[in-house]
Design goal:
alpha+beta, Glutathione S-transferase Yfyf (Class Pi), Chain A, domain 2, 11 helices, about 10% strand, binds S-Hydroxy-Glutathione
Length: about 220
C-alpha cells in the first residue's frame, strides 16, 4: 500500500519544524498543508484531527492523526525504522534523550514566549532564566558535536528550531545568545549543515521577527 503522509503545520512553529526535520531525515515524502490562521480561525481538518488540543503540528499517516511534536518524532522513528535511528536503542541513553527533550519543552518554550510577552521586572527575570536554561543545555552538550554524541538525533531535532527564533528572542529580550552561549551557536551552525533536513525546515529569522510583531499587536503587547 502506498503511504499517505500529511503534515498540517504553520511555518513559524518550532514544534512543526521538529516533525519536518524528522520526516526529511528519514526520507519520507509528505504533503504539507498550511494551517494559515491557527490562532483565530482553525480549519475543520485541524479540529477533526486534533480535537483535544486543536494545535498544529498534526501528522496524518494513512488517515490517522498523530498529535504532539515529540510523539510525532518518536512515531516517525519507529515507523521508518529501517533508516538511521533518531533515538538511541540503549534504554538508559534513550531515557536521557527523552529527559532533555522534556526539559526543553517544559523550560525553553515557556521562557522563549516570555521574551516578547513579559514586561519590566518579569521580563528581566524571564531573560535571566532563558540564558540559564541555554547554559544548562550547553553544558549537557559539552564537547560533543551533537547532544547524543557523534550522530545528529532526537534532542538536536527537538532543540534546533529555536535557533530560527534566536534573533527574535535577542531583539525583544535585549541580550546576546552569541556572547553567552557560543558553543551552542556552533552546535546550531553544525546542525544547519544538514541542508536537506534542518536548513530546509527552518524559516528565515527575519520573517519570525515579523510574525512576533504581528502577535504582539494581536495580543495588545507594547
Ligand atoms: C505544542 C503545539 C503548539 O503549541 C507540540 O506539538 O509539541 N506541545 C505541542 N502549537 C501552536 C502553534 S506553535 O506555537 C498552536 O497550534 N497554537 C494554537 C492555539 O494555541 O490555539
Amino acid at each position: 500500500m502506498a503511504e499517505e503522509v500529511i503534515l498540517l503545520n504553520f511555518w513559524p512553529s518550532i514544534f512543526g519544524m521538529r516533525t519536518m526535520i524528522a520526516l526529511e531525515e528519514k526520507g519520507v515524502k509528505y504533503e504539507y498543508i498550511s494551517e494559515e490562521d491557527v490562532i483565530k480561525n482553525k480549519s475543520s481538518l485541524l479540529l477533526q484531527m486534533n480535537p483535544v488540543h486543536k494545535k498544529i503540528p498534526v501528522l496524518i499517516h494513512n488517515g490517522k492523526a498523530i498529535c504532539e511534536s515529540m510523539i510525532q518524532v518518536q512515531y516517525i522513528d519507529e515507523v521508518w525504522s529501517e533508516k538511521s535511528p533518531l533515538l538511541p536503542s540503549d534504554p538508559y541513553q534513550r531515557a536521557q534523550a527523552l529527559f532533555w527533550a522534556d526539559f526543553i519543552d517544559k523550560k525553553l518554550c515557556v521562557c522563549g514566549r516570555g521574551t516578547w510577552r513579559a514586561k519590566g521586572e518579569e521580563l528581566e527575570a524571564n531573560n535571566k532564566e532563558f540564558i540559564d536554561i541555554l547554559k544548562i543545555l550547553e553544558s549537557e552538550l559539552g564537547d560533543k558535536p551533537y547532544f547524543g554524541g557523534h550522530k545528529f538525533g532526537f534532542v538536536d531535532i527537538v532543540l534546533i528550531g529555536f535557533y530560527s527564533w534566536f534573533p527574535e528572542y535577542q531583539k525583544f529580550g535585549n541580550f546576546s545568545i552569541e556572547l553567552e552561549c557560543s558553543k551552542l551557536i556552533a552546535w546550531a551552525e553544525r546542525c544547519l549543515e544538514r541542508e536537506k533536513s534542518v536548513a530546509k525546515s527552518l524559516p528565515d529569522p527575519e520573517k519570525v521577527i515579523g510574525y512576533v510583531l504581528y502577535l504582539k499587536k494581536l495580543y495588545g503587547i507594547e
